[in-house]
Amino acid sequence: MSRTVFGLVAVGAVVIAIALGVAWRGKMTEQAAIDRPPQVVGAPAAAPTPDTLTTATAQKDQAATGFQIMAGSAPAAAPPPVIRAPTFDVARIGTDGRAVIAGRAAPGAKIVLLDGGREIAKAESDARGEWVIIVQDPPLAVGQHELRVVQHIEGKAPLTSEQSVVAVVPEPPAASAPAQPRAETLVMISPPSGAATVVQPPTTAGLPKAADLSLSTVDYDDRGHVTVSGLAAPGTVVRAYVNDRMVAEGVAASDGRWRLKPAEPIGEGKHLLRLDRIAQDGRPVARLELPFERVVVAPVSNSDARRLHIVRGDNLWNIAQAHYGAGWHHTVIFAANKDQVKNPHLIYPGQILSLPKVN
What we know:
This protein is of the alpha+beta class and about 350 residues long. The chain is about 20% helix and about 35% strand. The strands form five sheets. Strands 3, 4, 6, 7, 8, 9 and 10 form a seven-stranded antiparallel sheet that branches. A four-stranded antiparallel sheet has the order 11-12-13-16, with no helix packed on it. The chain has a four-stranded antiparallel sheet with strand order 15-14-17-18, with no helix packed on it. α3 crosses α4. Residues about 40-45, about 65-70 and about 295-305 have low confidence and may be disordered.
């Protein structure tokens, strides 16, 4: 009896132990499930980085075209080079019409020199774009000339210079004429707008000069705005006075050229122009004085023409250049004034010429 009781007690103890073990293991599993972070179903993938996008795009393009594309390796297209119009630097023309003309253009360009639209000489610019043309066979004839150059580059449209060289070759003195200083060839380089630059004066005396200060041009438009130009030592100050009142100041460039444009226009009538070259201490060290006159002539009754009062230094070519924009229109002025102009190369101060309208 006692053995049976003890056996039943032992078996019951084992069963209870097994039940407790199973219950403890299930509780630990449940606690682990609670502590684990929840997993979201259908969460979006991480956003791709720019490098990932670039690589994916390159792979897509490569698959479509069959060519390998390097990310970020396609350079921007370079702008085409700017081709500038040719320019003049030097113009030397003798009284016999023989000339040396030099300037700049695109390297390796073919340069054609035109006289009033007619080809008279050719050259080619070097690797630095510099060109030189010698005109001697035949030389320039007596009279006015307007010289331009045309630049030719293979595969490009021709470019004509915006500048022009205006020259007046004088007539040789008559054998019976009394001895007197011979006139020189007047040579000016004329920009597309503004006053021309005298590079060769028409007299042996040269331009008005005092020490290193010289006067090249005095020009004014129909509204009275004046432009004065000349030469001085590079970097020096030049002041302009009209009727003893300072109207402009400037500094000579590295090549010695200076140009002054007073802000206020001048009135009709006679004026006195004074130029001073100023030293570093503010004192004038060179001075020029020149009287000039602004003449305003009322138009004639004919509405298709104007009148111009001729002053010293005028010639038909320059008048046509100023009023019509082309020197070769001087023939129109000559034809309209044959009653008082017998030779188109000879006009005189005091004459009043008619300027007809041209198309």
